[in-house]
Amino acid sequence: MSIKFQPTTLVGAIAIAMGFTSAAFADDQTPSKDTAAKLSTIVVTASKSEEKIENVPARISVIDESTIQQSPIADLPYLLSKEAGLTVKQTGGYGQTASVFIRGANASHTLFLNDGMRSNIATVASTNIPLFDLTDIKQIEILKGPASVQYGTDAIGGVIQLISQTPTKNKVFTTIETGEKNTYKSIIGADLIKDGYYAQIRGQRFETDGDQIISNLDRKAGFDQKGYSAKIGMEKESFGFSGEIKENKGHSDYFSYGAPEAYDFINRLYNLKARFNFTNNLVWNTRLSQFEDQYNVVKGSFPSILNTKQQEIDSNLKWQFTPNQNILFGTQFNNTKAENIGNFSSDNETLGYYLQHQYLKDGVSTQAGIRVEDNQQFGTHTVGQLAGRLLITPTTSIYTNVGTAFRAPVVGQIITEPSWWGGNPDLKPEKSISYELGFDQKFNYGLNLYGSIYQTKIDNLMVSSAITEWKYYNIDKATLSGAELGFKWQLNHWFLNTEYAYIRSKNDNTDEDTPNRPRQNFNLSLGWDNGVYGLTTSLVAKGRAHDTRSVPGYATIDMNAYWQINPNIKTFANIRNLGDVNYKTAVNDLNSYYIASDRLATIGFTFSY
Known about the structure:
CATH class: Mainly Beta
CATH architecture: Beta Barrel
Shape: globular
Structural class: mainly beta
Strand content: over 45%
Largest sheet: 22 strands, antiparallel, barrel
Radius of gyration: 23 Å
Number of domains: 1
Distance between the termini: 30 Å
Number of strands: 34
CATH topology: Maltoporin, Chain A
CATH superfamily: TonB-dependent receptor, beta-barrel domain
Helix content: under 10%
Number of helices: 6
């Protein structure tokens, strides 16, 4: 590590996080949370086009730009762990394997998108989310529930999409955050915009000594990465174009049954987007993308190189044929190549056609869609969705939706090479049907209440176990059911957000819970923010998972504070896991288990012009 942490860093972080700051500069600052709340949140994931979140007939949550920028060193698993409806299991700290379960669905049932591009890997049924850099991300959208009509395979549980920033004003900036464990991240960036044309560039470097990740081993697992992103584009009334490239690469240590291991990684995204307005009511959008994920085990018992390369074209036409109705028709082609260098190399193609209708008038919002997708290896699948939201009173709305989805096995699950584990060429695609009912209620004094109940039935669920020597196989049926109840309050500069989620995911053959899904889930965020300085304290609590792996529940507290000294200088501090809670995340062997990261205190500065 090149940066050494001084004891005063923790003192400074605690001082700022507890709110011990001087008088603030009050001009030209970031809007406070209560001011920002008055602005309608725009989302795109639920329907592939922009719409106000209050009109979406589904449960969708957003991690906004201000939350992402609280701590540049925060990785995607950490941010997602603050959503009660999600269970995030990570075997340690930075760079360690992480899985995300939406409403109890398998990790493979979560589709990850990066500006619309599929970012799941195909050698194993998961995604390298700890290796995604968030430097240029403005918003993370989490759609809970099936979305195969819009996106095809993998979206049985839901979709998590990273949406990058687009320049809105000219600026240059640098951000530095440093803290305990020799943790350090620096970012430099510039935005240019003129007459509808824009350009953006970001560069970042991150290093940390890491954490102890196995309970009976003192050794730490270090992590480092560096990367860049660049985007150019133009936005005119009748047409638009953008091109972006981003790359993130680095190195991480890890331990497998106590043995020290290490890997190098690279993930790279190319994205070209075009929009053309034939008329005010007829708009054509096309995206041409390529995503590469390279994972090279350079130290360990079984060196290997796991690569996924995906190329995708998505083109659609949106026709607003009345002021209150539109139809979206599109086609999507995906070619996925997966290889374990020296063992196997295989690819798969899918071609899908989707049709979606939306209606919005007088407090009634509906969405209906159908998709037909032809998979080169697993044939044709047809899925559909029907959803609606009704505004009963100006402050009360209810919604319901029903949808089917599917997931085809990835290449790594069907390959049967001698040096590759788990493959089963007889696997069948999973199919599901989901039902959901929810409400949103606004009260006086900035109070909002919301809730949802849901159930998903899955046929041919793909699993692996020690009994089958970790070979994948299908089980007949599984059921996911649960409920969510949330409460939001914003008044003047005070805010409070809290949510409770009950999740039950079970194998219908045995009536046992599937592993690593706690039934009780709770999160709370409380703070004060006037746009000049603010303080946020958050709590994440998870109950014990009702399975045979003996992973108990836990609760952690985090704190964030910032001070916008003037329009060009901002300082901030973060304390993760304030109580230094040492809790299990997964079983390692009979005598040890993986543990979560302990306390990390950091301070940082942003200088912009």
